[in-house]
Amino acid sequence: MAKPQESDSCQVQACELQSCLNKNTYSPEKCEKHMRQLYLCCESMYKATQDKGESTACPMPSAVRRWLKNHPE
């Protein structure tokens, strides 16, 4: 099976978050679960690529780490 393109990494999670935000009139607190899934996906992609991976769905690695640190489960 072919490895997905890095640029597509976490796109599914980003789309699910966007759908949630659209349904909840951009109330991020109602979409925390989707936000966490996206950031965990991004964290995994960055770990696998030593922070060199790129995805249109993910903010820069330091922003991902900061968000996860500030939003513990």
UniProtKB/TrEMBL annotation:
<feature type="disulfide bond">
    <location>
        <begin position="20"/>
        <end position="31"/>
    </location>
</feature>
<protein>
    <recommendedName>
        <fullName>Cx9C motif-containing protein 4, mitochondrial</fullName>
    </recommendedName>
</protein>
<dbReference type="InterPro" id="IPR009069">
    <property type="entry name" value="Cys_alpha_HP_mot_SF"/>
</dbReference>
<feature type="disulfide bond">
    <location>
        <begin position="10"/>
        <end position="41"/>
    </location>
</feature>
<keyword id="KW-0496">Mitochondrion</keyword>
<dbReference type="GO" id="GO:0005758">
    <property type="term" value="C:mitochondrial intermembrane space"/>
</dbReference>
<dbReference type="InterPro" id="IPR027179">
    <property type="entry name" value="CMC4"/>
</dbReference>
<dbReference type="Pfam" id="PF08991">
    <property type="entry name" value="CMC4"/>
</dbReference>
<feature type="disulfide bond">
    <location>
        <begin position="42"/>
        <end position="58"/>
    </location>
</feature>
<comment type="similarity">
    <text>Belongs to the CMC4 family.</text>
</comment>
<keyword id="KW-1015">Disulfide bond</keyword>
